[in-house]
Predict the structure.
Amino acid sequence: MIRVGILTVSDLGSRGEREDTAGRALRDKVEERGWSVECYDIVPDERDVISGRLREWADDTGLELILTTGGTGFSDRDVTPEATLEVLEKQAPGIPEAMRAAGLQKTPMAILSRGVAGIRKRTLILNLPGSMKGAVESLEAVREALPHAVDVILGRPGH
């Protein structure tokens, strides 16, 4: 079982003005896999708030996987990749490359996602798009590799 945190980045969602459909859909997908969602939050598109929550969940809570949804586009307020890069110790560029490649099979807009992925301490962090469809499809594109990635990060036997 993988211990997961889901962080939705949305100004409107953080104020209760928009329902978090992407976060809820990710929770459903994660739980279908038998993984445990141990942390969930909605934060505004504020770089220091995002990076602070990522640090807290990786360093203090010790989650094994953090999925962010939202804030990966081109608008002025989209700062999730920058906030994530602030906290990563190692990047894992193949993960977002795979997500974008899979998304490109469905829409040319997939190339507009600026999401990143990488490792902080013993936690794998992935940025997913903010739409429910984009978030779920991106997770599905890489989900088979995630248990192995987490095992390697944690130094579990056989890796």
Q: What stands out?
A: The domain at 3-154 is CATH 3.40.980.10 (Molybdenum Cofactor Biosythetic Enzyme; Chain A). The longest helix spans residues 47-61. The chain has a mean pLDDT of 96.
